[in-house]
Amino acid sequence: MKKLLFIILLLSSVNLFAQESKITGTLTDATTGQAVVGASITVKGKLTGTITDSKGNYSLNLNKIKPPFTLIISAVGYEQIESNVTSTGEVSLKLQQKSIVLNEVVSSATRINQSILQSPVSIEKMSLKAIKENPSFTFYDGLQSLKGVEAVTSSLTYKQVNTRGFNSTGNGRFLQLVDGVDNQTPGLNFSVGNLFGASDIDIESAEVIPGAASALYGPVAFNGLLSLKTKDPFKYQGLTVQVKTGMNHFGESSVKPQGLYDFAARYAKAFNDRFALKINASYLTGRDWYAENYTDVSASTPVAQRGPNNPGRDALNIYGDEVSRTLPGIGLVSRTGYEEKDLMNYNVYSLKLNGALHYRISNNLEAIYQYNFGKGTASYTGSSRFDLNNFVLQTHRVELKGSNFFIRGYSVAENSHDSYNTRSLAQFINRDWVQDLSGNTVTPDKADDTWFTRYSTAYNGSAAGVTAHDNAAARAFADQGRFLPGTAAFNAAKDASIHNYGLSGAGVFSASKFYHADGQYDFTSAIKVFELLAGGSYRDYRMFTNGSLFDDKTNRVTIAEYGAFMQAAKKLFDDNLKLTASIRYDKNENFKGSFTPRFSAVYTVDKTHNFRASYQTGFRNPTPVDQFIHLNVGPITILGGAPKNSAGLNVYENSFTASSVSAFGAAIGAAVAGGTPFPQAVEQNKGLLQKSNVAYIKPEQQKAFELGYKGLIMDKLLVDVNYYYSSYTNFILNTVVIQPQDQILGADGKVTTASASDIPGGKVHAFQLYTNAPDKVSAQGASAGLTYLFDKGYALGANATLSTFNLRNANPNNIAAFNTPKWATNTTFGNSNFANNFGFNLAWHWQSAFDWYGTFNGTRPGRVDAYSVVDAQISKKLPKFKSTVKLGGSNIFNQHIYQSYGSPAIGAIYYVSIVFDDLLK
């Protein structure tokens, strides 16, 4: 690092003495004549560029660039223009105001810059202007207004986005990049929203590709891609400070309104058009949303008998009550649980620190080093509700880029710190205080049995002073000595379990990381006849959970994977038809390689009407957990599906199906009860046993077709419609097998008597194996969007998305949950300056009801009701103070909504903020 800084400073100092030609000029507003501040001026095809100062002036060193060349001038709120320069000197221009630029430039669809109108696949963009004027509490919340984007909130600091179905609270099928860096945590294998991303004031744009993007971006982009780009310190200089405060928890019974505080600062400085740096810091803190859905979801209780008075109650957001027994003469009884609010750390925060150094070695070569540090607390709904407590994610990025290539390397490392599983936490606390009938506290291994014994004793009338046959009285007797939330004993037990990892505690430990390298080169300028782009990537996972999840105390878990792609494009028929073909090959060391092609065609009519068709493919490699989990939980071992993970265990090769073991056990029991000798009963019924045929895990696959139209009418109306059809195979699932001690099949290919005898003899062990389902399913949908620009800067947008799922003949237990509303709509309306520097923005979202399936509720359905929310903001620009004041709210009508079953209800956030921009330029 010290050497890098020395070289950069040395080169910068050398540049001070260089005598170079330059051009200067002033940019002004064509309507008002005022200076345009912060406009970007770059040389087309080069990296050389600068921005205008507070008076609209600029000076651009040409660094050996000789005329003729073209300048590209862009500024927020103005149309982008190109100006041909034939000689050095002064170039002053007037820019035309444009409240919204409908013909945006995007780069994610084909990995090169192009007009959004001519994108070969569906793509959505949130521009810098949209980010600044977004009415939601954060820009990330505002992504839900984009067409086809789904959102799920698990926490105040954690929102998950997705496209085109198969949604989840932890989405490993959707890729999120920040400046090209995969923002997933190595242990969780998905991005935790924007908890560890970039601050609002450093985001330049957000692009979303709905649907399979594996042909260009590899295995994680199975469902789509979100690409976030931060501001270049050469273009966006000076100091920006944002102070935002607000309140949430209105109209709630458990908590009064609480304050939210969000502070962010960004400073960037460029030196001599060669060296630039930027520093970012942001901190958000507040009181998290409460998960308080106490619906009884006991799978062992008939629906009509469920409720708060059910002795076997299993409330959705109460934990510890999952532990239950069927007691003779009483029925199903569950232990008394603890409410989530007593277990979760609801004082959440998100700290983000960022620094970057940029050095332009030449007009076409720039070196970048960037470091990101993120630390925060969030609630996550998975198989349980997890507290990501003081979780840390760090990234280092080094990149060398030119106008037609880049080479990038980065590392991503996590530390789970004080994170824990709230369901396990409740169960462990419940085992710390149970007393026997003599009043003595028993050891944790005897706690559950002792508690149920106390309950039975009291209910049956054998406990002095306790009313017999009274479930409430029996529970009170069994709960004597229970640690009450908020007491010293409760807090001590809670803290001890949080910092105890593996099967003996609720703590979650991971210090995993991965290293990634990728690059691409655009050969188009050399070939000229057609466009050609090629690139590749390599990733190395290095997992470490210290034996709490993987068998990695002594055997480190590492995974290497690589991929390469090529894309060719050709324009035909007077450049009206553009054909593009892409293909990518990816190889993970544990699986066969996967080819993912993509073919597309875009036909342009009168330059503004564009019809597109595409065939896309996607695949998803099993995550490191899918491959290498090795967790013995007593009666069953959870085992990842990579071949090397089960080496020597002989499980995949020598085990029975769980269903056949159940049938065999029932038949043996009936035969013996009827007087058949045990050996004879085994011999007669061993034919019921079936050898399992579980395959090692492999990637999921998708094939998709899409048709679409995007057109710009009279430079006022943008129309975008699309239809897609996708088919899916090889969904990853779990299956249970039973392994006997003896060999299953004999030389004759039949089940051996020895292996069959192992089952009633208890000489077996159960394994939960990761594998794939052979079932095939499909999904299809359509979306339509309109954006209309009225006079005087008013803009109206509306979109609607239809999503449907066809299970076909598949087993529902073999398929990932679709978890997507059939209908979702958005409407936006705003004006950035309707009078005297006042602006406003409104955003309305509605979606239909649907059933949510997830591991949190044992893959049983939970209803997510239809809901409607409105976000609103009014702003006032204060040019004299270089600031903007905003007053707004998310979900302003305070509709308490659920976005996934088991997650908290989300209410209103009302806020006020002030942003100081263009300081210290």
Automatic annotation (TrEMBL):
SUPFAM superfamilies in the cross-refs: Carboxypeptidase regulatory domain-like, Porins
GO CC list: cell outer membrane
Domain TonB-dependent receptor plug residues, every copy: 117-224
Keywords: Cell outer membrane, Membrane, Receptor, Signal, TonB box, Transmembrane, Transmembrane beta strand, Transport
First and last residue of the signal peptide: 1-18
Domain TonB-dependent receptor-like beta-barrel residue range list: 432-892
Example GO BP: siderophore transmembrane transport
Membrane topology according to the record: Multi-pass membrane protein
Compartment(s) where it occurs, according to its Swiss-Prot or TrEMBL record: Cell outer membrane
Record GO terms (molecular function): siderophore uptake transmembrane transporter activity
Coiled-coil regions, chain positions: none
UniProt family annotation: Belongs to the TonB-dependent receptor family.
Protein's recorded name: TonB-dependent receptor
